[in-house]
Amino acid sequence: MTPINRADCGTGQLCAAEPSDCDPSTSSSCFFLSAKQSSGRNFDFGLSGESDGYLAATLSLDNILGGNDTTYVCANNNGVVKFFGAVLNNGKLTLRELPVDSVKGKITGRKIQCSFSATVPAQITRVSQLAVTISTGTFNSSTDALGDPSTQLNSLLVNLANPNTTVTNELATNTSSHAITIQQSLTQALLFTVGVLGLTVL
Questions:
Q1: What is the pTM of this model?
Q2: Residues 6 or more apart from 170 whose CB is under 8 A from it?
Q3: Cα dist. 66→31, 101, 129, 148 in Å?
Q4: Cα–Cα distance for residue pair 164/21, rounded to 1 Å
Q5: Angle formed at CA 104 by CA 79 and CA 156, multiple of 5 degrees
Q6: What Gene Ontology terms for biological process does this UniProt record contain (predicted)?
Q7: Distance between CA 45 and CA 50 in Å, rounded?
Q8: 31 — phi, psi (to 5°)?
Q9: Which of 49, 97, 99, 185 has the most crowded Cβ, counting Cβ within 10 A?
Q10: Measured between alpha carbons, how far is 153 from 20 in angstroms, rounded to an integer?
């Protein structure tokens, strides 16, 4: 398969990554999805990340993850990539035939990489505005059972057709803002305590 890397990010392909600057061709602890428009709603995708089971890319027509959202799954089937089409609904993946072809993949240790061409879902008014999610989960090679997905990257709606689009991981953003909120609350609590102690001394 063609190596998956950051070479055309921002110019020839849209890229989503966690960490945001990671390069899947060199870094092992890196979750990466690239999308390159070939025509209309047809895109070429590259997916890379570490998992003992499967790696998945989900495309959502809104910012609410899991309403029968189209999901492309690349699983580690005893050292060989096995590809599945699926839909994500209420945190569960259900296998589904999807318009996908040209699937290629490779396994290196825990790193799963695959590339494929797909016709993406669309609303009439927004052909390429989709939220992108990268997730991992367990895979049973005997039964083809996919475990519940654990989200590694989740974006807001982005224009897949625009390579220059900046994709931000909302999970990382929410975590850091949550930490700041907690820190501010603790600081306020400490100031309040000091104020009360000051009054007590007086």
A1: 0.82
A2: 154, 155, 156
A3: 20, 24, 16, 12
A4: 15
A5: 100
A6: regulation of glutamate receptor signaling pathway; regulation of postsynaptic membrane neurotransmitter receptor levels
A7: 17
A8: -105, 130
A9: 49
A10: 10
Q: How long a stretch of residues is the chain?
A: 202
Q: Position 180: which residue type?
A: I
CA dist 137 and 56 (Å) reads: 8
Least Cα distance to 161 among 64, 78, 39 occurs for 39
pLDDT in tens, 46-103: 999 999 999 999 999 887 888 899 999 999 999 999 999 999 999 999 999 999 999 9
Contact by Cβ (8 Å): 157, 69? no
CATH code at 14-168:
2.60.40.1210
- Dig out the tokens for 33 from the structure: 């999805």
Q: Within 10 Å of residue 149's Cβ, how many Cβ atoms?
A: 26
SS (H, E, C) the chain: CCCCCCCCECCCEEEEEECCCCCCCCCCCCEEEEEEEEECCEEEEEEEEECCCEEEEEEECCCCCCEEEEEEEEEEECCEEEEEEEEEECCEEEECCCCEEEEEEEEECCEEEEEEEEECCCCCCCCCEEEEEEEEECEECCCCEECCCEEEEEEEEEECCCCCCCCCCHHHHHHHHHHHHHHHHHHHHHHHHHHHHHHHHC
Please give the Cα distance from 87 to 59 (Å, whole number): 10
Residue 185 has a pLDDT of: 43
